[in-house]
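Anyone up for a design puzzle?
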């Protein structure tokens, strides 16, 4: 066993014993700026937010949002910096007639006569306020379907309609106006300003459009472009600065080409950000930033492919002058290394698997934002927190705290820097380094292996540093561990510092 040592300056590094592999933060090689780490309120917060036990609510909110520590320096939470709010379509009011599973129905803030009722979505909106009170700086609203009053079939689910948007031909402007007025109303009633709005979610997916299960609709690229332009005009009319995001793709492969769909719903990046795509180009549309949003489902195995497709995505985004956000991930049945999505896992098995995906999204896809799917869930690997609705309580997991190794310490505006050293081992050690806007560093070291790691890390920036490490393992949950000299097996350790003057 050889020590893991942080060399805090070029002088200090020269005095270290020449043993073990050395990882060097290349302070001359900045990469992407990281905007935030997040999760969504779907679908649990509509229930949790109306629990009568506010202590239980506060515990869940602390785990997700808090940046405070207790008297021993133990973090109370993972400090998410982005909260995704599911703006509902009205399947809840329809009940069984919605043809949607009860647990995935949502209320709509708008009534059938076009008036708004801001007593609805009460549980979700309570968590908006709990998030803001704990310092969450950014909010995103996303929709899985237009309100049922605007859809072709009168439902918030597609029910096998095919690959076009479930929206009446004359309702694009009405849908856009609804979104703008809903966001403006939430800001007036709850004090929450939405930085971002996603009008469609997984429009290129094929799995959800064959029959009822949850709110959702496909859409062709031309339909998305039309809706985004209408939404831009509606936001301007309401005096909002909210940015309109595209297009929450269900699979990274749909961003790059045609995957299990047709040409109308593929090649998303070139469709929206290549000027030759005259009918769908959004690069000059007000409120639309030069960003593409996608989900990392299905592309995390085999391991070499996970790296390759993200490198391809990075290169295509660079060629088009756009950034990439990863906005959803949970465990699916093809994630066979950890047994697929069924059954909740509190252990490091899922936590390490997801940390490896985060590492690949950040390092190889240059992701500028990274979000998990559901903040809270049931007996499935889709929640950071396991919730027991009948008992009205939650239980934290290693997955929650593993995300915290990134979200709590890599703050909005941090810049990722390259790290040189031995060849990376996705079953061994993986390292990423970030410099926050206040000058502090956060270096995340994953040890996927069953053995203690043997390496040293150098930060040759000519400054002295005082390091504090936080570790998540089977025995620890983002625990402060001083300045350790080893990386234990099956662990994630974040080293943070502020340069000494």
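Challenge accepted. My sequence:
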């Amino acid at each position: 066993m050889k020590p893991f040592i942080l060399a805090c300056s070029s002088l200090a590094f020269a005095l270290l014993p020449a043993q073990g592999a050395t990882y060097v933060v290349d302070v001359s090689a900045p990469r992407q700026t990281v905007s935030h780490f997040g999760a969504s309120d779907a679908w649990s917060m509509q229930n949790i937010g109306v629990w009568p036990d506010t202590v239980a609510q506060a515990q869940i909110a602390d785990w997700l949002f808090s940046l405070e520590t207790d008297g021993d320096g133990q973090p109370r939470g993972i400090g998410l910096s982005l909260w995704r709010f599911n703006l509902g379509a009205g399947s809840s009011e329809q009940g069984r007639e919605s043809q949607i599973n009860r647990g995935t129905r949502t209320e709509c803030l708008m009534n059938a006569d076009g008036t708004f009722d801001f007593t609805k979505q009460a549980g979700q909106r309570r968590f908006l306020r709990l998030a803001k009170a704990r310092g969450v700086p950014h909010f995103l609203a996303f929709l899985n379907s237009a309100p049922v009053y605007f859809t072709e079939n009168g439902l918030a689910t597609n029910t096998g309609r095919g690959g076009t948007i479930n929206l009446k031909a004359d309702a694009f402007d009405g849908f856009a106006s609804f979104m703008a007025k809903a966001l403006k109303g939430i800001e007036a009633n709850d004090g929450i300003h939405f930085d971002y709005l996603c009008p469609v979610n997984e429009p290129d997916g094929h799995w959800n459009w064959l029959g009822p299960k949850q709110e959702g609709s496909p859409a062709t690229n031309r339909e998305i472009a039309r809706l985004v332009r209408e939404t831009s005009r509606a936001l301007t009319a309401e005096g909002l600065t909210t940015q309109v995001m595209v297009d929450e793709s269900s699979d990274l492969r749909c961003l790059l080409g045609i995957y299990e769909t047709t040409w109308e719903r593929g090649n998303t990046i070139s469709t929206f950000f290549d000027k030759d795509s005259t009918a769908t180009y959004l690069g000059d549309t007000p409120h639309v930033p030069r960003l593409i949003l996608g989900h990392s489902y299905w592309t995390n195995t085999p391991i070499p492919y996970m790296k390759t497709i993200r490198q391809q995505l990075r290169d295509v985004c660079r060629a088009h002058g756009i950034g990439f956000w990863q906005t959803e991930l949970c465990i699916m049945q093809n994630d066979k290394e950890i047994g697929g999505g069924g059954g909740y896992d509190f252990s490091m098995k899922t936590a390490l698997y997801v940390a490896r995906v985060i590492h690949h999204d950040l390092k190889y896809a240059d992701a500028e934002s990274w979000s998990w799917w559901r903040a809270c869930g049931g007996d499935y690997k889709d929640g950071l927190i396991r919730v027991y609705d009948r008992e009205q309580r939650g239980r934290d997991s290693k997955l929650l705290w593993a995300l915290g190794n990134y979200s709590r310490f890599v703050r909005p505006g941090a810049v990722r820097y390259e790290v040189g050293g031995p060849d990376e081992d996705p079953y061994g050690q993986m390292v990423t380094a970030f410099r926050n806007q206040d000058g502090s560093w956060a270096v995340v070291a994953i040890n996927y292996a069953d053995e203690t790691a043997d390496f040293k890390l150098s930060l040759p920036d000519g400054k002295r540093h005082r390091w504090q490490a936080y570790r998540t393992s089977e025995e620890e949950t983002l625990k402060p561990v001083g300045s350790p000299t080893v990386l234990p097996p099956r662990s994630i350790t974040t080293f943070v510092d502020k340069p000494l003057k």
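A detail worth pointing out: The first helix runs from residue 10 to 14.
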